[in-house]
Design goal:
The chain is mainly alpha-helical. The protein is built from 6 helices and 2 strands; from the N terminus they run αααααββα.
């Protein structure tokens, strides 16, 4: 009897390390797509988001292409700068809300003095950037 070939996702997620890396890349992709969608909806470009964050346009580009490591603080700052609140879903059916920090009149983000950390971001099985994308490209060759 002939065995069915594994898909790329099945092969990558067949180990704990592979599953972890896959979920990380999916979370990065899901988050960056969400940020881009909110930027489009609110009419905020990269230069304006950079100004609101007090960062460079290059830094925003790195955030959006998955090269920069986004902490929960960074994520909250980005959504605050976009005038939104972000929610995380841990798969339990309960939303964990991360309230954005208050912005000053200049539009720059001010961090609150303390925060509660939300549950991790749950990724999707959509396409993926970074290491997983490179692995997929190598697999196709």
């Amino acid at each position: 009897m002939r065995m069915k070939a594994k898909t790329f996702v099945e092969e990558v997620t067949s180990t704990k390390g592979g599953t972890r890396a896959f979920n990380q890349e999916c979370a990065i992709l899901e988050l960056t797509e969400l940020i881009c969608r909110v930027m489009q909806e609110t009419g905020v470009g990269r230069a304006e988001l950079a100004r609101r964050l007090g960062k460079t346009k290059g830094y925003v580009t790195q955030l959006l292409d998955g090269r920069a490591n986004m902490t929960l603080r960074t994520i909250a700052d980005v959504f605050t700068a976009l005038g939104r609140t972000i929610r995380f879903d841990d798969g339990s059916g309960r939303d964990v809300v991360v309230r954005g920090a208050k912005s000053s009149d200049s539009g720059r983000v001010k961090r609150p003095s303390s925060r509660q950390l939300p549950a991790p971001i749950r990724g999707t099985d959509a396409g993926f950037p970074g290491r997983m994308g490179k692995m997929a490209q190598q697999k196709r060759r």
